[in-house]
C-alpha cells in the first residue's frame, strides 16, 4: 500500500481543521473533492535508502521550514482579529500586493473557491482566495534531475510557506480575518483555483501554464474574509486557448519518462479532468524529474509568439 494513500491528511497539530473554531462555519470540501497527496510521503515511497537519504540531505532545511510554516499557518488562525471588517480599500489592497511582490511573489489573482477544489476532509475559513505564485529558476529546473532542480523546487515551497504567513500578519494588523494556505500542506488544489482566478490555464501535464513562466512555478493561497476583492471567474480567463494548443502539442506526453500523462485527458464521472496517472509519475517525480515542465514550449517565455502563431494557423 502506498504511504501517500494511507495518509492523505497531515498530523492534527499541522492541520488547520484542528485550530478552526466550528462557530466560524468553515467551508467544507465538496462531494467531488479529491484526496490530498502529501509530497514528503511521495518522496519517501520510491528509490533506494541511499537515494532517500541523499535527497533529504539536500532539501532538509527547506523541508523543515515548510513544516514549521505549515504549523504556523494553522496555529495562528486564533490570531484573527474578529473585528468584522469585510471591506478593503484600494490603498490597502495595493499595499498588500506590493508587499507580496517585495516578498518574492510573481503573480496574484483572486477568485471564489469551488468547494470541490478543497481537499477531501479539509475545510477553509473563507471562500474568497488570494492566489499567489512564485517563479522557479528556469535554468535550475532545466538541469533536472539534479541537486539544483530539487533545491529550487523546495526553495519555492518553503518560501511560499513563509510568504503566506507574512501576508496573513499584514491582513490581521489591518483588521482582516484570513486563513493562509501554504504550498506544502495546503488545504486546496491551488492549480484549478488559480485557473479560475485567471492567472493561467491547466495544461495537458496538469500544471498551471502562465504567460510569464509557462509551467515553471509553485502556488499557495490566502483565504480572506473580504467581500469586495477583485474576484474573477474561469469565464473571464483570457488564456483558455492554451487548452486547444495543448491538444496539438503533446510535447509533455511524448517526453514523460513514465508515460504518465494521458494523450487524451480523461474526464471522470464527476465531470472533472484527470491529467496524469500518479502511480506512473511518482517514481520519476521522487527522483527529481521535471520533464513535464522542461518539455513545455511555454517555459521559454514566448507566450505571445506561440499564441499568435497558433491562432493564426487555426483561424476558421
Which SSEs are present, and which pair or pack?
Blueprint lengths: L2 H4 L9 H4 L7 E2 L10 H7 L3 H27 L14 H13 L4 E6 L10 E2 L3 E8 L2 H5 L4 H27 L4 E4 L8 H7 L4 E2 L5 E2 L7 E8 L16 H9 L1 H5 L5 E7 L5 E4 L1 H8 L5 H4 L8 H11 L3
Antiparallel strand pairs: 1-3, 2-4, 4-8, 5-8, 6-7, 9-10
Helix pairs in contact: 4-7
Can you give a write-up of this model?
The protein has helices spanning 3-6, 16-19, 39-45, 49-75, 90-102, 138-142, 147-173, 190-196, 241-249, 251-255, 278-285, 291-294, 303-313; strands spanning 27-28, 107-112, 123-124, 128-135, 178-181, 201-202, 208-209, 217-224, 261-267, 273-276. The protein has 316 residues and is α+β, with helices and mostly antiparallel strands. It has one domain. It has a 4-stranded antiparallel sheet, sandwiched between helices. The chain has a two-stranded antiparallel sheet with strand order 1-3. The N and C termini lie far apart (50 Å). The model has no long low-confidence stretch (mean pLDDT 90).
Amino acid at each position: 500500500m502506498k504511504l501517500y494513500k494511507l495518509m492523505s491528511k497531515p498530523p492534527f497539530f499541522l492541520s488547520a481543521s484542528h485550530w478552526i473554531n466550528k462557530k466560524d462555519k468553515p467551508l467544507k470540501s465538496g462531494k467531488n473533492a479529491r484526496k490530498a497527496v502529501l509530497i514528503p510521503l511521495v518522496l519517501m515511497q520510491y528509490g533506494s535508502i541511499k537515494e532517500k537519504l541523499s535527497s533529504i540531505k539536500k532539501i532538509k532545511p527547506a523541508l523543515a521550514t515548510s513544516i514549521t510554516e505549515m504549523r504556523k499557518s494553522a496555529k495562528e488562525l486564533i490570531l484573527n482579529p474578529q473585528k468584522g471588517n469585510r471591506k478593503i480599500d484600494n490603498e490597502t489592497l495595493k499595499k498588500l500586493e506590493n508587499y507580496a511582490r517585495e516578498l518574492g511573489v510573481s503573480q496574484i489573482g483572486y477568485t471564489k473557491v469551488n468547494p470541490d477544489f478543497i481537499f477531501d476532509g479539509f475545510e477553509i475559513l473563507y471562500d474568497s482566495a488570494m492566489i499567489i505564485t512564485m517563479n522557479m529558476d528556469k535554468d535550475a529546473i532545466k538541469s533536472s534531475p539534479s541537486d539544483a532542480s530539487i533545491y529550487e523546487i523546495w526553495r519555492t515551497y518553503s518560501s511560499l510557506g513563509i510568504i503566506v504567513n507574512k501576508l496573513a500578519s499584514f491582513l490581521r494588523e489591518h483588521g482582516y480575518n484570513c486563513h493562509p494556505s501554504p504550498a506544502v500542506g495546503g488545504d486546496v488544489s491551488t492549480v484549478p483555483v488559480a485557473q479560475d482566478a485567471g492567472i493561467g490555464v491547466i495544461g495537458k501535464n496538469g500544471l498551471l501554464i502562465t504567460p510569464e513562466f509557462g509551467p515553471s512555478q509553485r502556488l499557495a493561497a490566502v483565504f480572506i474574509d473580504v467581500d469586495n476583492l477583485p474576484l474573477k471567474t474561469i469565464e473571464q480567463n483570457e488564456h483558455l486557448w492554451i487548452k486547444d494548443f495543448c491538444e496539438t502539442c503533446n510535447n509533455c506526453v511524448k517526453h514523460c519518462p513514465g508515460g504518465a500523462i494521458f494523450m487524451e485527458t480523461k474526464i471522470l464521472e464527476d465531470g472533472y479532468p484527470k491529467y496524469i496517472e500518479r502511480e506512473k509519475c511518482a517514481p520519476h517525480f521522487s527522483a527529481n524529474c521535471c520533464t513535464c515542465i522542461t518539455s513545455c514550449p511555454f517555459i521559454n517565455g514566448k507566450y505571445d509568439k506561440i499564441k499568435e502563431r497558433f491562432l493564426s494557423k487555426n483561424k476558421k
